[in-house]
Each structure stands twice: as C-alpha cells, then as structure tokens.
Write a structure and sequence with these properties.
heterodimer; A: alpha+beta; about 20% helix; B: alpha+beta; Sulfite Reductase Hemoprotein, domain 2; Sulfite Reductase Hemoprotein, domain 1; Alpha-Beta Plaits; 5-stranded antiparallel β-sheet; 20 strands
Amino acid sequence: MKILTGNDLKTGAVIWWTGVGWSLDVNESADVGEHGAAIIAREEGAQNVFAAYIIDGQKDADGVRPAHIKDRIRALGPTVRPDLTLKPSEPEAVNWVI
Amino acid sequence: MYKYDQYDQQMVDTRVAEFRDQVKRRLAGDLTEDQFRPLRLQNGLYLQLHAYMLRVAVPYGTLNSTQMTMLGDIADKYDRGYGHFTTRQNIQYNWIKLEDTPDILADLASVEMHAIQTSGNCIRNISSDQYAGAAADELIDPRPYAELLRQWSSFHPEFLTLPRKFKIAVIASETDRAAMKLHDIGIRMVRNDAGEIGARFYVGGGMGRTPMIAPVIREFVPLDQLITYSEACLRVYNRYGRRDNKYKARIKILVHELGKEEYTRQVEEEFAHLMSQGIEPPLAELERIKQYFVDPALETGLSDDLDLTDPDFRLWVERNCQEHKQAGYIIATVSLKPVGGIPGDASADQIRLMAQLAKDYSFDELRVTHAQNIVFPHVKKADLYTLWQKLDEAGLSTANLDTVGDIIACPGLDYCSLANARSIPVAQKISERFGSAEKQAEIGELKLKISGCINACGHHHAGHIGILGVDRKGVENYQLLLGGSEGADTSLGKITGPGFDEDGIVDAVEKATQVYLSNREDGERFLDTYRRIGMDPFKEAIYG
C-alpha cells in the first residue's frame, strides 16, 4: 500500500494521512493508491501538513507497518527512549521497528 | 568569559524579533515552507526525524552557570526534559514546537545566547580546547582569538552563503583536544624562533564522505593579522569552491584539487591585497576582548594534596581529572556517558545541577567538549571530593574519560533525518559490554566513535575504533574502522572489511580489543599497537 506522512506545521510532529485528515497514529493510515501527490499538494497548500511524502507500507493484523526502518522509527519514536515513543507503556514496542 | 556589549545584544535581540515575525507569517500561511526553510535554518531550527530540532550555539564550548541553568530550563519548559550536547560543543533539543521557537530564542538572548549560524552554508560555531585558560600545557589562552573570530564571522555578509558550511577550531597547545586538523580551518597558536606568538594555519581538513587531514598552509601568521589571513582563506574558497556539487563543495576538496601550493599561493596573493585594505580589527578591540578572559581569582599557595582513600573517587580523579596550570586546582570532566546511557544526553535536572556546581566550585564556568562531556575548568583540589560526591548522587560520576565507554555517537537514525542507521543502540551495547571499571582500566585509552551515516557527525574516521552505520537494502549494517585519531597525531581510520549487524559489530569491537591486549607492549595504547602491528592481525581475529 502507499501511505502519506509529513509533519504538523505548529508542532513538527510526525503525522499520517487517514483519508480524511491527519493522525499521529500510523495505524490509521489510508492507502492512497495513485493519489498521493495530489493529496500532498492540496494538504500542503492548506497548511495542514508540510514536508509530506509518499512511502510504501503494508497492512496486516497488527496494523500498518512502513516498509523502511526510517519511517518505522518516525512512526513510533526513538527506539532508545521508549518513554518518549507513542507507546510509552510498551517498552517492547521498539522491537516493531527492527 | 565574554560579555555581550550593546551591539552584540542588539543584534541578537533584533534577530529574535525578526524571527518572531517570520514564524508568525509562516503560521499564517504567508510564507511557504520553501520560503521559510532557509529562514528557520539561519536560526538553528531544523526539521528532524520526529519534530523540529533546535541547535543552540555555545561559542568555543564556554558557558556560565546562568546560561547552563537556562539550557536546563528550556529543556523542561519547551522540550521533553533533556538536551543533547554535540560534537561541535553545542546543545540540541529534539522536540521543539515551531510556535515556541521565538520565545526560546528570546530566553536564550536574555542570557547572551542564540542559535544563529548553527546551520547553513556559513561559518559555524568556533570551537576550541575545552581546557582553554586552565590547561597546564597551553601556550596562551586561545579563547580571545576564538571570540575575535566569532565576532568577525557573525553576520559577515560575504560569508553567509559559502559553497558549503565552514568550521574553524582554535587551539594553543601541542596536545590537540579539538580535532583541529579535521576542520576547514584549524588554527594552532605557536611560538616562532624569535619568541613571538602567532597562528599556524591548517586549511582543508574535514570528515564527512571524503575525510582529509588539513595541511599547513602558513607556519606563522602574526596575531595582528589573524582576521586578515582568515579572510583571505575564506575569500579564495568563496570564489572557487564548487557550488555545482554539494558533495564536492567543502574547502577540503578545493585545497585537494588545486593542490596545497596553488591554494596557498592564491591565499597569499589575496592576503597581500587585503593587508592594503586595513580590515584587521584594531588591537584595542582584541585587548577589550582579552579582558573578559583573565584568570578567575585563583588562590595561590594552595596544597596539591588530595585524599584518595575512597577508591571510587580515586578512580574518577585518575580518569576524569587533568592538571591545572595553577597549583592547588584541577580540571574535572563530567562524563555524559554512563554505562548503557545515551552519549551526550543530560536531563534538565542534571544540567541545572552542573550549573549550580560550577557556580559553587568552578568560578561560575563550564565547558562543553567535542567529545560530548562537560568540564569544570577551575576546581580547587580541596573541594574536589565534595564536588564528586554531589555528581555521584546525580548519576554524573562515571569514571571513563577517553576509555572505550566514553563513546562519541551522533544521534543516528533514532533522531536524525539524514542517518542511515542507529548509532545510540550500538554505543549502549558497547558501553554495557565494556562496562566494568576493571575492563576499562585494563584496556586504557581507547577512543571509540560512531556515526550513523557518511556525514560523520560521530567522527568515526577519527576513532581509534570507528563505526559507520550504513543502509544495506533497508537493513542497518555497521562498518568497522581502525586506526583513526583526532589528536596531535591525527590519522584517518581504515575499514577492516565487510560490515556487521548490530550485535556483530559489538563482537567485532571486543575481538579488536582482544588482539590489542594480546599484542600490546609496555605503555602502548590501542592506537599504538594498531600502528605497530598493522591491520592484518585484527582482520584475522575479526573475520577469522
């Protein structure tokens, strides 16, 4: 699947396109198919996101997993500070990155 | 240390107001990201892997307690309770919000700090010896000259859009503690045959994807021509440095392609021209600056005795403290490399504590080292045990300076958008593998440096053992290098062979240390043994 990620303008937080808006949770990512570039142009123009780009991912029973490790780390947070990830109560979540 | 005059303060305050307006326009949609990016970068605000990152300049690594306290307060108020001290003697915050940035810069300006020229193709923060003004082995204090260079390079209109970023280091001792020869310009203060002190210029060093050791292009520049000669070096680079290829744009490539002799000839020609223009700052300005760097009120006649009956204290003194130029005083380094910790990270509480301890025990002064540690430059030996106890209570008494545990590591793929592999987890595993004091003592001096990509922010080329993280078809892979050094005996490490996964690289480091321990002769460091026996025994042990 093709998913979109970028950053929130005010906070810089990593966000993911859900099909109707932007979420902090990669698992809410929508498959944008061939429409990624058009969505980015529209959303960046509306100041809803910046530095957006299209990546490959796959969806399974556990949720959406970006194909590349860099985007998986973006999705979770720094692997060396589980307390600062989006799943601070799940230290083992860093294994998902690797 | 240097105090802002009205011009310094006005420049910084004006820049804060200007950036506040730029942020407001960006948030209102009046500026696009393409328009805004160069403006935020000029104020040290990057976009990193998880958020905006703010890099704050610490000129030549020198801070007072008020400034250090502010750095801790910013970590708490605007970030997530910690900061990361960098290999350019700066500090970075990883979780900054754009809307907060003008307030952060205003807070910094209130304590004479800023984030200007911590990014972009300009002259970056001037770095220096972290022991400057305290070291027993220095010829003169290099900080007034570093400050003069800072003032000259700040907002220099000709050098704000260089072909690429530009880094300058200034030292004044034979022992190079600033990786001086791996800078675009390295300046070492020397004495000539006539007994005069001047500046030896090394130009064209650097790490990154094409590491080079800077050659000497002028043995002696009189100190009243320091700025003029620096300007000549920059002018030739600015005119002929390559702007067509980012990867060939650093001055090291220009010096290499022209050849040292031709580059030097052009610099000398430009220098002769500039000397006729009278651009050197008046000596009175240098004298004004020097007044800020007079010694603190060090007492005389103090005893050099230390009670070392506490074995943990003794170990820390032997490992983390250096001789001070004044009897009865000592230089103490706080390692920000606890076993299994993140190199260079300190919590807001730790930052504020170090600020308070500097106020109480080090004449209000601290230094950030390029090895990502913190120095108390002027500690009375009679106070040292008390200082150590307070550091110990805060988890800041790790005794591992210059050992395998004192690892330089870039933020790597955990934080950096340029990285290809994570650096910090490798540093943590090595730190834990070699965590015991006995093991570190057995191995002795071993400088290990890790970069998460070829940009070499973790100085891997200059590690006795270097590690470079690469991306191998989406999987992290780590190359091992041996034989680098960034000291007076600067050398570049060589790759041993095929790379390893995360656990494999830790094993490879251990095998390399075993080769060293099996082969070392009396008094040899890891680097000495490597240089004597060569790469082959290491390769044989590692790849068997």
